[in-house]
Specification:
This protein is of the alpha/beta class and 546 residues long. It folds into four domains: 10-153, Resolvase, N-terminal catalytic domain (Rossmann fold), CATH 3.40.50; 169-299, Hect, E3 ligase catalytic domain fold (Alpha-Beta Complex); 317-380 and 492-545, no CATH class; 382-481. The protein contains 16 helices and 19 strands. The protein has helices at 19-23, 30-43, 65-75, 87-90, 94-107, 127-156, 184-195, 200-209, 215-223, 236-244, 288-299, 344-348, 360-380, 382-430, 436-481, 492-498; strands spanning 10-17, 49-55, 79-84, 111-114, 119-120, 169-171, 177-179, 252-254, 257-258, 268-269, 276-278, 317-319, 326-329, 340-343, 358-359, 499-504, 519-523, 536-539, 542-545. The strands form six sheets. The chain has a five-stranded mixed sheet, with helices on both faces. Strand 6 (169-171) and strand 7 (177-179) form a beta hairpin. Helix 11 (288-299) packs across helix 16 (492-498). The longest helix has 49 residues, at 382-430.
Length: 546
């Protein structure tokens, strides 16, 4: 082991300060670390000094750029001595730090010095060096735990836990999100183009052609960051992420991602049930209705075709026999009038279904004709429409209420009896009439039975809620109908407003040019497509389900 610096090799002066250190009250800034290490090197005759500085990096992050740079120089034989303020500056992952001090540095004949810890490999390491590394690791773990707890508490209160301001927004003096007058209109336009049926690629092409600054380029220009090489080239990923982000309709979604360990920096996508959603936390850029239209559209075919257009029926159109989606087929060489839909199960051979071939123009004619009819009915004769749409629902609800009242009384009586039984059982155990083991078995059985009955009660309540849902949807349908005096063409937004599902049957005579497909249209006020049909209008093989 060398006891003095080799003038032909680098004396590496490594400095690091993390955000965790600052929050914990770390007194030494990067500049102070630089001065301390320079003074030590000069005083002890170390030459050829070179700084390696990681400012704002956690000690558990082993991919720190200057840290990696320094280790690369070590492995290339360029470094003779490594000097740090203390061992924690080198890192807070005790396994990694021990590896460097006990294996890597000795292997490359590198002298290691931690000034304030009085550690100098030239004098040999003692057991306290390893213990100190372990304590540094424990400190990092504790800091991470505290920070995570704070972030968790903020997230559960509905406060945004992300630090980046989303494109389209800016922060006011109270750090609340407000629409950015420069970029919010662009966000709104992107959603409107998607709702009109334009695919992500088409939207990107339009924005690029109009030389609209990308979010990263806008940020660089606005805040003086490094300029991007392609300031107007919008990426598919950027637009897709924007179209899925509920923040634009005024909601805050926390805990989208997570990490498995404080040492693992890779973020993983959280399951929806582990996310927390808070509605109306800030001013929206787009309406919730517009957002829902776009999401409904993406439930179907998410990718645009090679023409940059998306299928307006995506998320609405299904095979009546196998339940698969129907997909649009078109090509540049074909007349648009020949665009057609076919069953996805048939195409992929995942089912034994048939083609269910139907021309787009034929489907448009059917849907548009009956949509106009129903919307006109709901708009001009609202009371009559409401009574018709609710007729079956009311009849079903009345019968359900009568049956449920009897069951509810029986269930509530049984729950009360079980409560009394559990109390008596507890008293018997307290008086020594039964053993603890017997008590545990009997009480567990009673509580299980009680839980099952409560679940049945919950089911009764949900059944009654269906009528309320149906009424809400009927009224929404009528309100939407009053907004459209005339429907000239079908768009994803119009379909979202009025139609829940469209099912296409196979032709009675396969491959026939004259025999039409039976088409069933389920409107949005039907809470469930499986409920009783209120009215069926049959014409030319088409069926309208109200």
């Amino acid at each position: 082991m060398k006891t003095e610096s080799n003038t032909n090799q680098i004396t590496a002066l490594y400095c690091r300060l993390s955000q965790e250190d600052l929050r914990a009250g770390e007194s030494l800034s990067i500049e102070n670390q630089r001065l301390m290490l320079k003074e030590y090197a000069d005083k002890n005759g170390f030459r050829n000094c070179q700084y390696y500085i990681d400012d704002g990096y956690s000690g558990t992050d082993n991919t720190r750029p200057e840290y990696v740079h320094m280790l690369s120089d070590v492995e290339n034989g360029l470094v003779g001595t490594v000097i740090v303020k203390d061992q924690s500056r080198l890192g807070r992952d005790h396994l990694e730090t021990d590896r460097l001090m006990e294996l890597v540095f000795p292997a490359y004949d590198v002298r290691f010095i931690a000034v304030t810890d009085n550690v100098d490999s030239a004098n040999g390491f003692n057991e306290m060096s390893g213990i100190k590394n372990l304590f540094n690791d424990m400190y990092a773990r504790d800091c991470s735990k505290k920070i995570r707890a704070v972030q968790r508490a903020k997230g559960e209160r509905g406060e945004r836990v992300g630090t980046t301001t989303p494109y389209g927004y800016m922060k006011d003096e109270n750090k609340h999100l407000i629409p950015n007058p420069e970029t919010a209109p662009i966000v709104k336009r992107i959603f409107e183009m998607s709702a009109e049926g334009k695919g992500v690629r088409k939207i990107c092409d339009i924005l690029t052609a109009e030389e609209v600054l990308t979010p990263s380029a806008y940020g660089a220009r606005k805040y003086g960051k490094q300029k991007t090489s392609s300031p107007y080239r919008w990426s598919l990923k950027t637009v897709r992420e924007m179209l899925k982000n509920r923040i634009y309709c005024g909601d805050t979604v926390n805990f989208r991602t997570y990490t498995k360990s404080y040492k693992l920096k890779k973020t993983l996508k959280n399951e929806p049930e582990n996310m927390l959603i808070f509605e109306n936390t800030h001013e929206a850029i787009i309406s919730r209705k517009l957002f829902d239209v776009v999401q409904k559209h993406y439930e179907g075919r998410k990718k645009s075709d090679k023409f940059g257009e998306t299928d307006k029926y995506a998320g609405f159109l299904y095979c009546a026999e196998c339940g698969s989606k129907l997909y649009l087929h078109r090509a540049r060489t074909l007349d648009p009038k020949k665009n057609n839909y076919m069953c996805g199960g048939y195409q992929s051979r995942v089912t034994d279904c048939t083609a269910h071939y139907i021309r787009e123009k034929v489907l448009d004619s059917i849907v548009l004709r009956y949509l106009r009819q129903v919307v006109s009915y709901a708009r001009n004769k609202s009371d009559e429409f409401y009574a018709m749409a609710m007729a079956n629902g009311e009849a079903e609800a009345k019968k359900q209420i009568k049956d449920n009242e009897k069951l509810r009384s029986e269930y509530e009586t049984k729950i009360s009896q079980l409560d009394n039984a559990i109390q008596l059982l507890f008293m018997d155990r307290s008086n020594g009439k039964i053993t603890d083991e017997r008590y545990d078995i009997l009480s567990a059985n009673f509580e299980k039975e009680q839980s099952e009955i409560k679940a049945k009660l919950s089911t009764l309540d949900s059944q009654l809620d269906k009528m309320k849902v149906r009424e809400k949807r009927v009224r929404e349908f009528i309100n939407n109908a009053k907004q459209y005096t005339e429907i000239h063409r079908l768009t994803p937004e119009i379909l979202k407003s009025f139609i829940g599902r469209i099912e296409v049957y196979e032709k009675v005579v396969k491959h026939s040019r004259t025999c039409g497909n039976r088409v069933e249209i389920y409107f949005t006020f039907s809470a469930d497509k499986a409920i009783a049909i209120d009215r069926v209008i049959t014409k030319n093989g088409d069926i309208l389900i109200l």
